[in-house]
C-alpha cells in the first residue's frame, strides 16, 4: 500500500467544478459538482455557504480529514473562490484536488494527474491564475468531444444525453472512489487503480 502524498498539511481540499444554479445542474460542465455531491453524501454532510465564495462540507473520506468545496461563482471565475478556500484551510496549491469535465476523454473515463495545461478549460485557467501555479491535482472526467462541428463551449453547457445518463451514476461513483484513493493514498496509488 502506498503512503499518502508527502507534505500535505491540514485537510484534503477537494474542489468540484461546475456552474451554480438549477439552469446548469445537468450540464456536462457540472460533473465536478455531481462528484462533489456524491463525496458529500459519503462524508455525511450537506454543503453550506462559506465566506470564501464557496459551498463547503467538512468530514472524513477514506479515513482522511477532507474539505469538499464547490465555487459559487460561474465556472470561468472559479479561481478566486478556490484560492480563498485553500488559503482559509492553509492548504498548499499543490495539494488542491480539482474535479472537472474533460473533452479529450471518452464519456465516463476517469484520469488523474498533477499539473499540465488547461486545454481551453476556462475554469482550470482561472484556478491556475489564482493559485499562481498549474501544479495542482486534477481528476478528469471524460465527457467526449462534441459531435460534428458543434462548438465545445455549447456542448459542455448541454445536459448529458439520455444514453449517457443511464450510466452516469456508475461513472460518478467510480470517479468519487478515485478521489477518495487520491486523497488517502496519493496520486500513484490512484493512477494504478483507476487508469
Verbal overview:
The structure is a single chain. The chain has 195 residues and is an alpha/beta fold. It has a single domain (12-194), classed as Peptidyl-tRNA hydrolase (Rossmann fold). Helix content is 36%, strand content 22%. The protein contains six helices and seven strands, in the order E-H-E-E-E-H-E-E-H-E-H-H-H. The protein has helices at 31-43, 79-88, 122-131, 152-156, 162-185, 187-194; strands at 12-16, 48-50, 54-61, 64-71, 96-102, 110-114, 137-142. Strand 3 (54-61) and strand 4 form a beta hairpin. Helix 1 packs across helix 5. It is globular and about 45 Å long. Residues 1-7 have low confidence and may be disordered. InterPro entries: Pept_tRNA_hydro (IPR001328), Pept_tRNA_hydro_CS (IPR018171), Pept_tRNA_hydro_sf (IPR036416). Belongs to the PTH family. Its EC number is 3.1.1.29. It comes from Halosaccharopolyspora lacisalsi.
List the secondary-structure elements in sequence, H or E. Answer: EHEEEHEEHEHHH
What is the second-level CATH architecture? 3-Layer(aba) Sandwich
How many angstroms does the end-to-end distance come to? 17 Å
Task: Count every beta strand, where a strand is a DSSP E run of 2 or more residues.
Answer: 7
Mean pLDDT comes to 94
The SS-based structural class is alpha/beta
Q: Can you count the helices?
A: 6
The CATH homologous superfamily name equals Peptidyl-tRNA hydrolase
| Form type | globular
